[in-house]
């Protein structure tokens, strides 16, 4: 019988994280500390373990809208420069401790200005935190600047992403409730980014179906799809197991468009009913450009290693599968090709080879 990777072994593997929200991965103790320092008095509890449990249970509702409400508390304590630096530094530390060697962490600058910080000050504080937390830990962390799809500041945030792209901002994203807020509402921002030769991903195919994915790709020109799980709606599987891809699904596979999949989060928001039924199993078999991520480490009580371990347990994946997911993610990163290649050939493949040899 082939040895299946354990959680402890997976933690040692060099991993890549492309879909992780800064305000979804704050340490519970940090939330309590910052609430005390900033006068934020709306926390449901100030006990660390109780707070950790509250976030997980509040996120398990099966509703994307209810899930998003948990961010009121994390964003609420992330309104000062010092708070942003601390949260970003701890994020980089936590990811490095989980074996992540490259990460793109996203956040919405517009959500952190209620105490007077400018958008530029928000970005500079987070970049400083990433730098502090990454130093000497064998991890590289870039930022994705997110615009909220129900607001009207996407052009402003897109310009911000371009302004800081040479000092740590890897790209742009839009997020928030999908239903009723199609990505085409922000077409001017996406067209601007394309003219600037800039990278962007779009949350699509999570809380809404194929039209969301189609618009993100064919109208807006997304480089990657945040989640993209509903692409499964364009694949028919016959009783004998033979798959038939619709035109959109075939396009996504043929063009190697990366799917930023976050299995635990998808279960919480109702985008999938169980891990065994999660589209990732079929999409992996059909060789879509599948990548595996955390989304919100606090709300889902997860890490990249935990996500991988759950997939190993559910689908029987081995080291080759985990390496495949990881290389897919590194190929899809928003950094120059030669730098991606250096990490794949110099860090990821040797790291997995050593773990497979030890197993």
What does this structure look like?
The chain has 359 residues and is an alpha/beta fold. The chain has helices spanning 7-11, 28-38, 48-59, 64-69, 71-76, 81-97, 119-134, 154-163, 187-195, 210-219, 247-254, 263-269, 280-285, 304-315, 319-331, 337-358, and strands spanning 15-21, 100-107, 140-148, 169-175, 200-204, 224-227, 235-237, 243-245, 259-261, 290-292. The longest helix is centred in the last third of the chain and has 22 residues, at 337-358. Residues 14-349 form the Adenosine deaminase domain. Catalyzes the hydrolytic deamination of adenosine and 2-deoxyadenosine. It catalyses: adenosine + H2O + H(+) = inosine + NH4(+); 2'-deoxyadenosine + H2O + H(+) = 2'-deoxyinosine + NH4(+).
Which secondary structure elements does this structure contain, and how are they paired or packed?
Blueprint: H1 7-11, E1 15-21, H2 28-38, H3 48-59, H4 64-69, H5 71-76, H6 81-97, E2 100-107, H7 119-134, E3 140-148, H8 154-163, E4 169-175, H9 187-195, E5 200-204, H10 210-219, E6 224-227, E7 235-237, E8 243-245, H11 247-254, E9 259-261, H12 263-269, H13 280-285, E10 290-292, H14 304-315, H15 319-331, H16 337-358
Parallel strand pairs: 1-2, 2-3, 3-4, 4-5, 5-6, 6-9, 9-10
Antiparallel strand pairs: 7-8
Helix pairs in contact: 6-7, 8-9, 15-16
């Amino acid at each position: 019988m082939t040895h299946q990777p354990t959680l402890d072994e997976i933690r040692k593997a060099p991993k890549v994280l492309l879909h992780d929200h800064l305000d979804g991965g704050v340490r519970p103790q940090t939330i309590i500390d910052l609430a005390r320092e900033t006068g934020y008095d709306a926390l449901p509890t100030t006990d660390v373990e109780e707070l950790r449990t509250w976030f997980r249970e509040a996120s398990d509702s099966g509703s994307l809208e209810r899930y998003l409400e948990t961010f009121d508390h994390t964003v609420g304590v992330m309104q000062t420069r010092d708070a942003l630096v601390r949260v970003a530094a701890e994020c980089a530390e936590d990811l490095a401790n989980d074996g992540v060697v490259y990460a793109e962490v996203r956040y919405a600058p517009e959500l952190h200005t209620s105490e007077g910080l400018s958008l530029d000050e928000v970005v500079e504080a987070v970049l400083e935190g990433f730098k502090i937390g990454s130093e000497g830990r064998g991890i590289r962390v870039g930022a994705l600047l997110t615009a909220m799809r129900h607001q009207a500041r996407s052009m402003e945030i897109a310009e911000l992403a371009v302004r800081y792209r040479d000092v740590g901002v890897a790209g742009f994203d839009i997020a928030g409730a999908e239903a009723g807020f199609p990505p085409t509402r922000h077409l001017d921002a996406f067209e601007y980014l394309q003219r600037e030769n800039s990278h962007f991903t779009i949350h699509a195919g999570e809380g809404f179906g194929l039209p969301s994915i189609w618009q993100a790709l064919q109208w807006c020109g997304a480089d990657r799809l945040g989640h993209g799980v509903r692409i499964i709606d364009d694949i028919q599987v016959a009783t004998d197991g033979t798959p038939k891809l619709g035109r959109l699904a075939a396009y996504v596979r043929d063009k190697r468009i990366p799917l930023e999949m976050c299995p635990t989060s998808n279960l919480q928001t109702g985008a999938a009913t169980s891990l065994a039924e999660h589209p990732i199993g079929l999409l992996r078999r059909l060789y879509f450009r599948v990548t595996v991520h955390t989304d919100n480490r606090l709300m889902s009580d997860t890490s990249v290693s935990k996500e991988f371990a759950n997939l190993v347990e559910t689908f029987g994946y081995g080291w080759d599968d985990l390496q495949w997911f990881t290389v897919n993610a590194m190929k899809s990163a928003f950094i120059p090709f030669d730098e991606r290649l250096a990490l794949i050939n110099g860090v990821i493949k040797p790291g997995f080879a050593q773990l497979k040899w030890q197993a």
